[in-house]
Structure formats: C-alpha cells, structure tokens
Design a protein that fits this description.
Blueprint: E1 3-4, E2 29-32, H1 36-41, E3 60-63, H2 64-69, H3 72-80, H4 85-93, H5 99-115, E4 125-126, H6 134-139, H7 142-148, E5 151-156, E6 159-164, H8 167-176, H9 188-197, H10 208-223, H11 229-247, H12 257-272, H13 282-299, H14 301-308, H15 320-343, H16 352-362, H17 373-404, H18 406-419, H19 435-448, E7 457-458, E8 463-465, E9 468-470, E10 475-478, H20 481-484, H21 527-544, E11 545-548, E12 562-563, E13 567-568, E14 575-578
Parallel strand pairs: 4-5, 6-10
Antiparallel strand pairs: 1-3, 2-3, 5-6, 7-10, 8-9, 11-14, 12-13
Helix pairs in contact: 4-5, 9-15, 9-17, 11-12, 11-21, 12-17, 13-15, 15-17, 17-19, 17-21
C-alpha cells in the first residue's frame, strides 16, 4: 500500500445545484484527513494544499487497489489514521474533477442533517462517529466506559445508538429485560442477502420466524448428538485428524490457522451436511476462506461504512467484496441442498438439511411458516459461519497464549498426564477433574475476547435500563469488553492469568460476569457445542504436543490482532514438538 502527500482541491460551492447521478469515473484515490471537523472551522487551513496543521496528521492518498488486494491493510490504515464520518463527507465533497462524488457527499450531508438525533441521557452523548474506527478505538475502548459511564448514547450517522457497559447493565438489559432488547437492527450489508435466503437465525427479526427457527435448530442439534456421546466421539475423532496434520509438520514452523479452521468446520458440517471434508479439499478450503474473509470485511471499516451510508453500496470499492462473498457462500450451500434432495428420505433424516426438508413438507400448507427453502440456506449459512469461525479463532488464541507462556503450558501438560495419561483419549467427563486446563480455556476466552461488542441488538419496545429511557428502535451495542476487562472482577485484566478462574484451593470457579457467548434470548445458539469442542480439541493437542515459537521469529503482539466481526489473533507460526 502506498501513502503519499497530495494537494486537496477547493470545496464546491454550497449553492451549487445537484448534478444527475452517474457512477464516479475515478475513486481509486481517497483522501483521509484526521480531525477535519476542527479543520473546517479553522480558516488557516488551505484545502488546496497538503495539510500541515498541528490539528491534523497529513492529508494522505490511499491506494484503493492495494486495499482491495490486501484487505489487512484496511486495518493498518484504520489504526494509523483517525477516520471519522465527517472526514468521509469532506473527502467526497473535495474530490477534484469528480462532480458525481461531490453529489454523493452533499446528499449524505443533507441526509445526516435531516435525520441526525441524539438520545437524551444525563451525562454523555457523543457526536457523530467520534473516531469511526471499529471495535478498538470506539465502542470496546475501555476509556469510553470509564469516562462516560455505563449507558453511553452515540449520535452515529442518522441512527440512535446506545452502548451498554458493565455486567450489571448488560444483565439488566439482556437477561432481566430480555425481550425488550431482543430485536436486531436492519443492516444494509445483509439486506440483499436476506432477500435471497431469508432471515436465517442470527440477524432474524425478533418474532415468530426467529422463535420457530431457533427452537427447531436447537432441537435438531440435540437429535443429532448435541450433549450426547455420539457427538463427543465425532469431535474426538476429528481431533485425531487434526493431530495428524500437526504431526506431519515434523516439528518445523507452520501456520496452524487452516488446519484448525478445517477441524472445527468439519464438526458443524457433519451436523449440517452429514459429511466431513479432507483438509486439502480445495473447494472446501476456498469456502472457508470466503467465510473468514467475510467476517473481516463485514465487521471492518467497509462494512461499517456501507451500513452507515447505504448509497455507497452502489459504488465501486472494497465493500463490494462483501456481496461477492455472500453469493459464493450461498452457491456452496445451495449445491449441498440440491445433492440432498436427490437422496432425501423423510422417514430417515441424516442431518440438518434432511430434517429441515421433512419439516418443510409438514408445514407446506401453513402460510406463516418459516420452513421455506430460501430460509434453509440462510439458517445453514448462519450455523456454519458462526459455528466454525468463532471456535477456530478461540483455539488459535489458546495456542498463541501457550507459546507465549511456556510455564503455564507445562502446568497443563502435568494435569493432562495425571488425569488422562498419554494413551487414552480425553473425554468431556475429564473436565471436572482438570480445573487448571479448564481455567486456561476460560482465560483464553476472556483475554482473547473474540466478540468485543457481541452483535448489535435493537430495542423491541420503549424501555429503560439503569434508570435511563431508551425508545423503541434504538440500536444497542453490548460492550462485552467492559465485562471481560473489568478491574473490579479480574485482578490482572490485561494479563493472561488462569488464576482468574481458580479459588485458593485450585478449584475451578467461574465469575457470574463471564459471558463470552453474550446472554439472554440472543445468547449464542452453539454455546454448548463450542464448550465441548474447545475442551476436547485443546486437551487433545496439548496431550500430544509441546508448542513453541520458531527461532528468530518475533513474538506476535496482542495489539496486532485482526478486527472484524470477531477479534482474531495476529498471524503466527508455531513449532509442534511431539511429547
């Protein structure tokens, strides 16, 4: 990615007339200038010259092609340059030689002026896009909580948004008043997807459709082994395949990302499709890459911009990769459904697809049913995406923490050797006898913090939380980071410390405020499955291997984590030495 100084053309006259909309002929170069609201009020700032004001870093050019080719650079730019909503308006209006871009900027400005509103809240209401920089610099930043309190109102674009901080606040909203906060907001990046494949489960609107599909999904998961020995054996078997992949590296450095992603995805795919995939299946690897890339793009800068400024969805740019990926994921799932229809026996369902098709046949005369084929695709996309990516990400954090803390890794080894031994395969029943290993897994979930702000909720009706009135339709962001790093709960919140989950006698304890799967009606559907997978995969890997960083390679840094819908560890390689 190239960054260089540039001249900024004069702003168009506010009295100019709108031009007929055309697709901008060249938007490859984008201006990013930090703290522009101050600059716009500063008459000393000449917009025809590069900015050297002390109020601002330097006007920059970002090569959009480079961003499209290397999506990770989005986050590097984002972390380095403060990019708020006012900057976006400014860059669109100042684009030299592109009246169409000016037209878009002017349209956005008028829409924001018409619809901008702030929720009345004694104490704190932040302006539009106070550092529009995603999870780390805005919502999940603990400084926001400490400075503004447990209920923070954001004037974000033209939608009312409230951030909830602290366990007691989240408990009141998500648990005690669960239905009040059970709605999901309409997000532009999923609008077209919902038209194609129904609402699914994760972002389905609260009501009959969502209740019917969530109930059916949980029941079907139990029917096909959730909480039973059969599924435990399936995970143990997959852990054996994963161990073989690690062993094949023969102690040399390798990136475990793909293998771990394959293993966790195979569990949910065996439930959804009735089959597992080989670790070198090119088609499946491409599918997993698309799912992972979607998590980064949808939760990153471009996904947020598309949700905040829907009109950019019709313009060229990196955000279009989101929609392309959605189509690729749908195509993969649709092919599996088509294959199932050829062999489907309603009397002998083998997996989730078969069970759904059977229920669809039963409900075909019900006009209110959610059992329609399009929604089968949506539900499967949700189950596979959420069921594989989150567990895979947590396991990758766990191995990174073990490498960075070899002394703690040794303690895990000692406990595994004492309880399980080196020959017998671990089972879920071993968990009660392995408090330290259990504590390490929970501490990984806490410090890894893979869902810093969970998923957005929306108020289903007018309600209150912590004494503050919140109207119906308000977007709610549950700041799980404020719970996972609360100094009142965790003695060393910014350090990896399994002692957070152990009492004075070394027994496992779990604080009430530990809610990595969120809480209430929208709690993670796959929580029970994820817990079983994490324990069996992690214990099996540590039973067979000692993990360490390759020689002469720098230690991965927590601050280099990858932000998207989930918070992923920085890329790293490891050496797996057979024990």
């Amino acid at each position: 990615m190239s960054l260089m100084k540039m001249n900024v053309s004069p702003r168009p006259s506010p009295d100019s007339h709108f031009l007929p909309f055309k697709q901008p002929h060249n938007l490859k170069q984008t201006i990013v200038c930090s703290k522009l609201p101050s600059l716009q009020e500063n008459s000393d700032h000449d917009t025809t010259q590069p900015c050297h004001s002390s109020l601002c870093k330097t006007c920059q050019i970002i090569d959009m092609d480079a961003i499209i080719s290397h999506e990770n650079t989005i986050h590097q730019v984002h972390d380095t340059y403060s990019c708020n909503l006012a900057n976006i308006e400014y860059l669109l209006r100042c684009r030299k030689g592109c009246p169409e871009a000016w037209y878009i900027g002017e349209t956005l400005r008028q829409q924001m002026n018409e619809h901008r509103s702030t929720i009345t809240r004694p104490g704190c209401s932040l302006p539009v896009g106070e550092h529009f920089s995603g999870h780390r610099l805005l919502v999940s930043d603990l400084r926001l909580w400490k400075e503004y309190g447990n209920v923070v109102s954001l004037n974000f674009g033209w939608g009312n948004t409230v951030v909830l901080n602290g366990y007691e606040t989240l408990k009141e909203a998500l648990v005690k008043k669960s239905e009040d906060f059970a709605e999901r907001p309409d997000l532009k990046i999923y609008e077209h997807l919902n038209e194609l494949v129904g609402q699914g489960i994760v972002f389905a609107k609260y009501g009959h459709w969502w209740r019917e599909q969530r109930k059916f999904s949980l029941a079907t998961m139990r029917n096909f082994g959730l909480g039973k020995t059969s599924l435990d054996l399936r995970i143990i078997e997959e852990a054996g395949f994963l161990n073989k992949e690690f062993e094949s590296a023969k102690g040399l450095p390798f990136d475990p990302h793909s293998n771990i992603n394959n293993a966790t995805s195979n569990i949910i795919c065996s439930f959804a499709f009735g089959e597992r995939f080989e670790y070198r299946d090119e088609k499946f690897l491409e599918f997993l890459h698309t799912v992972e890339e979607s998590f980064v793009l949808e939760g990153g800068l471009w996904g947020q911009l598309a949700n905040t400024f829907p009109c950019i969805c019709h313009l060229p740019g990196p955000h279009n990769k989101i929609f392309k990926n959605q189509r690729l994921i749908i195509r993969f799932v649709q092919e599996k459904i088509t294959e199932h229809k050829k062999s489907w026996n309603p009397d002998e369902p083998k997996d989730f697809i078969d069970a759904f098709l059977t229920e669809q046949e039963k409900m075909k005369d019900n006009p209110r049913t959610s059992f329609v084929e399009s929604n089968l695709i949506g539900v499967l996309v949700d189950l596979i995406s959420a069921g594989s990516e989150t567990t895979s990400t947590t396991l990758r954090w766990s191995l990174l923490f073990m490498m960075l803390h070899p002394d703690l890794q040794s303690k895990v080894h000692e406990e595994i050797d004492r309880v399980v031994g080196k020959e017998r395969k671990p089972t879920p029943g071993d968990r009660e006898e392995m408090p330290y290993t259990n504590a390490v897994i929970h501490e990984t979930q806490r410090l890894g913090n893979i869902a810093p702000i969970s998923l957005p909720h929306q108020t289903f009706r007018d309600t209150e939380v912590m004494g503050y009135s919140i109207p119906k339709g308000t977007i709610i962001i549950p700041n799980l980071t404020s719970v996972m790093f609360d100094e009142k709960v965790w003695s060393t919140p910014h350090q990896f410390n399994p002692g957070h989950f152990l009492d004075a006698k070394g027994r496992f304890v779990k604080p009430e405020s530990f809610i990595p799967f969120s809480a209430g009606r929208r709690v993670c559907l796959g929580e029970q499955l994820a817990k079983t997978e994490l324990f069996l995969f992690f214990t099996s890997l540590l039973q067979h291997f000692t993990f360490h960083l390759p020689e002469n390679e720098p230690k991965p840094k927590y601050v280099e984590a990858k932000y998207g819908i989930t918070l992923s560890p920085p890329p790293y390689r490891l050496c797996a030495k057979l024990r």
